[in-house]
Amino acid sequence: MTKRKVRVRFAPSPTGPMHIGGVRTALFNYLFAKKHGGDFLLRIEDTDQARFVPGAEEYIIKSLKWCGINPDEGPGIGGNFGPYRQSERKEIYKKYADQLVELGWAYIAFDSTEEIEKLRNEAEANKETFSYGIGTRGKLNNSLNLSDEVVKQKMEAGENYVIRFKMPEDKDITETDLIRGSVTFNTTKSLDDKVLFKSDGMPTYHLANVVDDHLMEISHVIRGEEWLPSMPLHVLLYRALGWEDTRPKFAHIPLTLKPQGKGKLSKRDGDKMGFPVFPLPWKDPKTGETSRSYFKDGYFPEAFINLIAMLGWNPGTEQEFFSLDELIEAFDLERMVKSGSRFDPEKAKWFNKHYFQQKTVEQLANLFKAVLIEKGIEVSDEKIKNVVAEVKERCEFVSDLWEQSSYFFEAPDSYDEKTIKKRWKEDTPEKLAEIAGLFGGVENWEADSIKESFSGFMNKKEWGFGAIMNPLRLSLVGGNMGPDLFKICEILGKEETISRINIATVTIQN
Ligand code: GLU
What we know:
Layout: E1 7-10, H1 20-35, E2 39-42, H2 56-67, H3 90-102, E3 106-109, H4 113-125, H5 148-156, E4 162-165, E5 172-177, E6 181-186, H6 187-190, E7 195-198, H7 205-215, E8 220-224, H8 231-240, E9 249-253, E10 256-257, H9 269-273, E11 282-283, E12 290-291, H10 301-309, H11 324-330, E13 341-342, H12 345-358, H13 361-374, H14 381-391, H15 398-405, H16 417-423, H17 428-440, H18 447-461, H19 465-477, H20 485-492, H21 494-507
Parallel strand pairs: 1-2, 8-9, 10-13
Antiparallel strand pairs: 3-4, 4-7, 5-6, 11-12
The protein binds glutamic acid (GLU).
Glutamic acid binds next to helix 7.
């Protein structure tokens, strides 16, 4: 038997923006495909028109792109197995639903939503749960109980109906999940008769998903754990449709958990707990509110991807930093953990810091330049580079660069009170004026030579270093922060340094 080509798919429903969990599913699919020289498909599962959210598909595509997870086939990309949007494949599914009815694997049900709701409420009142299936279908309004004649009449009269899968009784469905091992479901104990097709002409998720995975020659279904209970139904559908020989293998990825470790990380958790859960900003079409995102918060996509890959997977070594290529190389489904993975927003920052520090001064200066331009600050590239080189080490994000270095671009408009109280003495203005005079005579305006002149002068004067260094720093940066003082002088330039000293001596009153 020739080895089958690996083909996997990410199959989101466009019901909203995808969050960390969705990206993670896409990423693991992508890594698996690339590791095995296979194809990664994007398929939009938009058969549930009621849950369709405009903009969601676009959002998903853009987010994958930002992450560098590029599908080989999908909407807008093309491929030999399209269309890749289920709403555009509508015509395909009906015949399979009919086939299942003909073969006795499915039946037609006329029960209205209200009738089912009523049964559900009645069951609830008796502290039971209603399910349409093995125990109840014999008494309900469906083709198992009605004559062919009546069924035909009802259909011709345009009565609403659905096609339901007829779950076989008391069968153990055992399947090897590539992450969790052997899993067994008993049909009577845990499975109901799921709707496969609706009278609006649309298949439900289950039918469309299985039909498409078959037609698109998917070799492995890698998806979130919430779909594990659907696996036995899908296995049976492949059997019923005669596709068992070529059906995909399954791997269900354990959940991403809230930072507290309990419960699935939800789309709302980010705003609630103060960290982003979305890759890109998402503007809710209903409320008009825009959610926080990794992109806007200044994360690098490589940090984001690295962080997400480590949620539920590890290489079995101490290595924590992986580029996308390194992830492809190292990835293995067998190394997925079987339990949920707690999402840690602090760890996310830690990853970003690493990738931030990996960037060259030039790269960061380029990014920082955009921030400065937005603030209306135009300075030479040279100056930006010099500033970045000085403060880079203290930063985790591009936005930190401004926080750490704004005084290089704007003279202080106030001075730290505490430092004034502690360091600004009566004779400080006089002394600083002398330093300004000294600086005026420094010819080679570079940190080393400024320092040399300064030290010589201080020794001669026998002034304590602390008594001058702190007020001098205060005059130049407005507080007690920043890198080497003489480096600051150098980058500010001679004129600006002297001007700032003069302004401080006038402004700061004892
Ligand atoms: N449309 C499903 C979802 O939104 C796909 C599940 C699957 O991968 O089978 O997650």
